[in-house]
Structures are given as structure tokens and as C-alpha cells.
Amino acid sequence: MCNVQQDIETQDHLFLHCHFARAVWFGAGIPILHITQAETTVDIWIKNLIKQYTAADNDYYNLKRILIILWFLQNYSNNAGKNGRAGYKVKTTAWKPDSNWQVIITTAADSTKNSARYGIAYMGKIRHGQVVFVGCKTTTTQDSRIARLLAIRESILSASKLGFQRLIILTEDRGIEHMWERNNLCRWQLSTILQDIKNLQHQHHLSLTIKTTPVAVIKESKSMALTASSTFLDVYCEHSMCRP
């Protein structure tokens, strides 16, 4: 039982509707599966986690993940509904995802200060958090939005290659989300790659959702993209046993 929202824990609730789970899965790097198997409530689990930390340990990572969890929960609490129960949905989750989604993909593009090109990266995970594919490559573009769209296109190609058809793609670029939802280009230079994405959707019969997310959510992909901007890379790996 999740005592943040008083909801029974299902995979959908854990992954997309529980603010505690979002903090754990996206920001704190703690496997949710281990928590659910522990059969404990959120507050007790956090207290036990804090007790494990001492200044003498000098465990920065452990302290950071605790603070991330508390920040997510406090942000949720600050936006509680008028009925006295936290009923507000954070903007990044204020939408109804495809209940049958198969894979969620974080995408990113980044460039070092002195680099003349952008690196792109993406990572696909299934419902219980297992990584099923990862890609990272160097591009020739110097445009951040084009690079982010390239990352999205590459991630779709990888997902469809493995047989996934119901995708949720996360990007830090709100403009891309708006373009996708409203079918409205902000620059003509983006038309070709956006049309490529639509063609892939049609060709592979994809249910495709593109949403904006905080940078903290895509930090792993962001880090890989930054590396690819300074060192020539074209890397892809997959977990072939995790096909739908």
C-alpha cells in the first residue's frame, strides 16, 4: 500500500502515478522491485534509509538519493488539493499514458562548450525498470533541437527493431512536445526529421507519446550524449531476451 496516495501498488501506479516511485525510479537510482518486496510503507522505508547514513560514511550518493526522494514528496505535498488530500498531479504526470505501454525511453542531446557537434543518446526501459536497449552516437549537427529529434528518431528505430509498438518517449525539450501534440512546426528546418518520425509511427503501427521531463530524469542519457559530443562514438546494445 502506498501511503503517499493511499493507492494499491500496481506497476502502472508505481511507474507513472506515484510521486515517491518517480523519485526512486527516475532520480534516486534505487530499484523499486526491492522496495515492493520489502513489504514496508514509504515513511518507514525512508526513515530506515536515513538511519543507514552517517556523516562518517562520507556516502554522498546515499545522501543525495534521500534528498531527491524528500524533494519529490515535498513538492507533491505543497500542491495538495483543497480537500485536504494530495490530489494535484505534477505537470510531468498530468496526462493519461497508454495503459498498455511497453517501453519508456529517455532521450537526450548535449554538447561540450568547445565542441562543434552534438552527441545524442537514448535508453529504453520496460515496466519493472530493466534496460532493454541503449544507444549513443556523435552527430554532425550544431543545433540542439535537431539533435534531440535525432535522438528520438534513433530510439524509435531501436524500439521497433525489438518489436515494441507502444512507446513513451521523454525529452527535456518542451518545444518538441508541443510540436508533436499540435502538429505545428516552429522552424521549417525541423520538418524533414519530424516527418521521418511520423513515417516510422505509421510504418510500424506505433502508439507514440512524446513528453517533456526534468533533466534529472534523463541524466544517464544526458551524460552519454555529452561524452559523444567530445569523443566520436556510435554505440548500440540491446537485451535481446526482453522482447515483447
TrEMBL record:
Start and end residues of each RNase H type-1 domain: 127-203
Protein name, as recorded: RNase H type-1 domain-containing protein
GO MF annotations, alphabetized: nucleic acid binding; RNA-DNA hybrid ribonuclease activity
InterPro entries assigned to the protein according to its UniProt record, in alphabetical order: RNaseH_domain
Organism: Fagus sylvatica (Beechnut)
